[in-house]
Amino acid sequence: MEIEVIELIKEMNPWLNDGEIIPTKMSEYIQREQTDKLLLSDWDFLWLILTGPRQAGKTTLGKYIARKLVEKKSFKDLLYLNCDFLEIRQWIISPLFIKEAIKQFNLEKPIIFLDEVQRLENPGILLKGIVDLKLPIKMIASGSSQLEIKSKVQEYLTGRQLEVIVLPLSYKEIGKVNQEQLIYGCYPRVVLSKEKEIILKQLYQNYISKDIIEILKIGKPDIMQKLITLLAHNSGQLVNYNQLATDCRVSATTIQHYCSVLEKTYIISKIKPFVGNKRKEIVSNPIYYFIDNGFRNQALRRFSKDENRNDIGLLVESAVFQEILKFKEQNFYDFDIHFWRTKSGAEVDFVLYKNDKDFLPIEVKFRRMKRPMITRSLRSFIDAYNPEIVIIITRNFRKKTEVKNSVIHFIPLQDIIEIFDLIRSSLKL
User: Is-above-0.90 flag for pTM?
Assistant: First the structure.
């Protein structure tokens, strides 16, 4: 190994210098919901692939998992390698680098953690080769682009990996629900920082400069930025690709491609219409929500804390979507998130669908109530599908009532964590 590479690795792994096994102090670590599942011995000799948006906590979670595995004595050492560094990428060209590292650093039954693995030239072949060596090692890899992870890694690792999506913190993980999260979102650094707007600006600029320009080599980053802003304005509404194309002065095909890139890099998430057996339902265009409100508000440069800001309802609706998505991914649940709209204008914000018998409508009505208020649209859905449970997220109202055979739960946003037991019960998870 070259001296420069050895010194760089020592900087990345200070515990190799001072005799510590792995970093023992993680004072700012916030416990993630999926941790216990990831520590199961079932995955000991599979690649643990951590994907998700940049700065969502993949590296921190990976190191925490490594620390816990060492404490359990499942493994003994950690070798962390950040593939953002050219020197590391030039060294990791063959699976045999592991044997070289074990010899150089006297590693015993180590955990190998490759961060930003998509930066490697042929990561899928490399990771498969490491598995095929059948060494007594734990393998962790991370990447912030599903686009590249899928194309460069997954096709080579069928049956050899557990993929985990690491999203920004959930309200349950943070331990509270307040207006600050509605405005600034839930990225770990933002939650822990006093200078939230500065961190969000950096996060946004890094995404454009690194993911969009440097890594994915999108040829028109100015168009991408304009599209992000337009989607931020129109979040929660039916997307019109032709109108977006007109506004951005590109083709509708380009807009669809750019939206796909934004999805695969975990900026936005698409939900499609719920379609039962009713011909009157809308079956075409999807809706996009941002995966984090802070990123959305940064795109608009709008951080007003005014409770009466004109998009407060959208921020709450987006937050409810984000919490459902995090709940789904953190628990590895298999259900779809849809919306419901009819040609006559009836709509329900979210329909969680597992199968034809297990589904759950969720409506967001962030307004002050003194008595149960059920919209005509929601009654239309109840009439059509007879759901066992219905959830309505409110501003401050709590109540349980019945409409026909459906039990309606009114739950204030500040108690949104309560909906997860209802989701489990309704979808039989």
Answer: yes
